[in-house]
Every structure is written in structure tokens, then in C-alpha cells.
Amino acid sequence: MKKIYLLLLILNVVLMNGCKEQAPKQSSKQQVHQERTVKSEVDLIKKYDHEIREYYRELAEVGLDGVTVMPIEKKVEYTDLAVELNFEILKRMGFLPVSDAEAQKAIKKYYNIDTSESNNSLFKKGLRRYVFKDGLPQERLDQRRSMDDGATETLFCFWYRNLFVPKYNYIIFHPIIEGATLLEGFDDEDADNNVLKKGKLSYRIDKELFYKNQFIFHDSKAALTWLMNNNRSFLRDLFLEYGYDKSDVINKMMLDEIKVVNRIPEADETKALFASRGANRKLLIHRGLMEYMLKHVNEENEYFLMLDQYASTLLDLRNYPEFDGLTKEERYRIGAYVGYYYGLLFDKGIGTSIDINGFGHGLYYDENLRDYLKRNKYFHLPGFEDIAGKHYRRYRIDVDIEMQKMRDE
To answer: Which domain of life does the UniProt lineage start with (predicted)?
Structure first.
């Protein structure tokens, strides 16, 4: 009996040691998360306490223009610090960092920009890539020069621009230290020296920064809802300046903003709806929006009339020789897509008594437009040649009827 107890005791010890030796290894994702957690435990405010207080001291001296009017060495130093601090508040608010590949994919999706391009190419497209000390020397030098450019209205100027920050992989508009931190009791017009030395420093909560990044890098529906309620201009810029027209929510927002009087959409308000000049000044045709209209059109929402009204002025070059700064070729190109979707909506039986067949009018009176469509093979849009012929004939019949009425009189 004692031997049995002894054997059981030995077996128990062996099993316990075996369990210790066979403890499950952490997955790579768990290890990465743990490493990030450890890193986030470093309090940057404590680490950079002296630098942050010095910044506030200089901020009190220069006033509202802030870092943009400080000496160039300070601009560079404080902006390097600002991009780090702003990423810190993002993490503290719950933003999960993404990989370089994920970040590049997200920027391409929402901004239609490849972040691997040179900065000289990127800023012309409306997005800068931040260059750190260990970045390409020439790009770091160019960035320094752009910080010293006081003409904020020029593309080259660094300040007040959309910025992508690699390594941390987030976006920000105009990174500044006071955007990420708060010095209790600080007054930039009458700074108290005691506050500058001993005032409590804390992190700000920047919901706008957080939800922008949640939307871009995590496709967050909650972030989209917040932006719809608090910062529609950000979503509007994605649509108008970068051509992002893949979101039903944003497309509906753009359509709902068009003013309609007595069921007639105001023509001027639709000028940037179907096509716009992007941040790179190139023409953007919002085909995704028109696809949304095709899917959701009904007798109540005036989507059909929006296309009809827009085409009636866009393609009437005789009476409207100038149209939103567009060239003749650009008007024809936009008109092709507008006419195509006008025809598709018409075929769904949404045509109304208010229909003026602006597309048919353009085709009937402008032989150059007809030749343009043929020359471009109707942009390879399925059934477009038949659509164009149908609405050309519809308009010709209307003209024939009116001519007959005049003869009868």
C-alpha cells in the first residue's frame, strides 16, 4: 500500500513539472501587444517635461501664431515632439496601431494616394508624409524648408496641411504640442512664470483626431457616426478633394445637402456633386455617388431630377459657355457619365413630368458631343450607345412636336 502511495506521489510531481515545462507560448500577436503595452507605459509628459514647459514659455512670447513663427530650429524640434505626443494621446484613447502595409492600404482607399511616393509628389496631391530625423536627408531638409515658408496658401508650406506620420501610422492636421497637452493655468497672453515652472501638465483628449484615425485605419462605424454628427467637413473633403465615393453614408450626406425648391434641385449646388477638382487639381468624377443614386432612387428623393438639371446646364455650351472652370473636354467627359446614369435611372421608371431631358438636349444640339462619345467608344459603359440614341430621339420628337405646333398656329 505504501508503495502505491509513493508511486502516486512521484507521478504527481512529474506531472506538475511537466505542466510547468509545457506552458503555452505566447502568440506573436500577444507578444506585440505586450510590447506595445510596455512602451505605452512610458509617460512622455514626464520624459519631456522640460521641453514641453520650454515650448509653453516660448508660446507665451509669440502668441496665437504659435510654433509657425518660432525660429526654424525650434519649429523642427517642437514638431518632432508634437507628432510623438499626439500619437501618445491616440493610444491612450484606445487607438490600436496598424502595420505599415495596413496604413498604406488605408491611405490608398480613402485618399487614393500611394504613401510610398516621394514627398515632392505627395504634397501636390494634398497629403504630406512626415520625415523624421532618420528619414531621407533631402526630404528632411525639404521639410525643414517648408516649415520656414510663411506663405500658408502655397502647396509647399508645411503648416495647416493633412499629414501622414509613418512609423506611428496615423494622420493629423497641423501637429502642435498644445494640441496634445494641457498646462493648467496657462494663459498665452499673460503667462505666469510659476505656472510655466510648476503648473500641472496633462494629456488632452482630442476626439476629432481619434475618430478620424479610427475611421481611416480601422473602418470604424462608430467613428463614422461621430464624424457625421461632429465633423462632416472631414467627410466632405474626402469626397470632394480625394474622390472617396464608396461610402453609402457619405454619398447620402452629400445628396441630402443639395437644396431643393418646389421639387427642383438648385443647379449651382450640384456643380461639385457629380464632379470636382481634387486636392491635386485634377478632375474627379464621382461615379460611386451615381451608383448609389441608381440603387436608391425613388419618386421622393429627386435623384433623377438632380442628374437631369445638372446635365441641362453642363451640356448646354451655347447658353452656358463658362461652367465651374471646366474645359469643353471635361464637360463632355462628365456629361458622358451623368448622361449614362440619367438613362439608367430613367429606365427604372423614375422619369417625372418635370423631366427636361438635359442629356438629350445636349446630344441634339451639339454634334461635337455626339462625335466625342463615339470617338471614346461610349467609355465602354454597358448599353450606353443605346441610351444615348434613345434620349437623342426622345428630344428630337419633342422638337418636332413643338415645330408642328408652331406651324399649326
So the answer is: Bacteria
Residues 142-187: tens digit of each pLDDT: 999 999 876 556 667 899 999 999 999 999 999 999 999 999 999 8
Q: Is-contact 191 60, C-beta < 8 A?
A: yes
What is the pLDDT of the chain when averaged over all its residues?
Answer: 88
Q: Is pLDDT larger for residue 189 or for residue 62?
A: 62
Element (H, E) at 72: helix 72-92
Phi-psi region of 126 (alpha: psi -120 to 50; beta: other; left: phi over 0): left
Q: Where are the beta strands (DSSP E) in 260-363?
A: 260-261, 264-265, 275-277, 283-285
Within 13 Å and on the Cβ side, how many CA atoms surround 36? 17
C-alpha–C-alpha distance, residues 41 and 25, integer Å: 23
For 155, other C-beta atoms within 10 Å of its C-beta total 16
Query: Cα(232)–Cα(206) distance, rounded to whole angstroms?
Result: 16
Which own/partner contact pairs does 258-263 have at CB distance under 8 Å and 24+ positions apart?
A: 258/306, 260/302, 263/302, 263/305, 263/354
Name, in order, each residue with C-beta under 8 angstroms of 269's C-beta and a sequence gap of 6 or more. Answer: 257, 258, 259
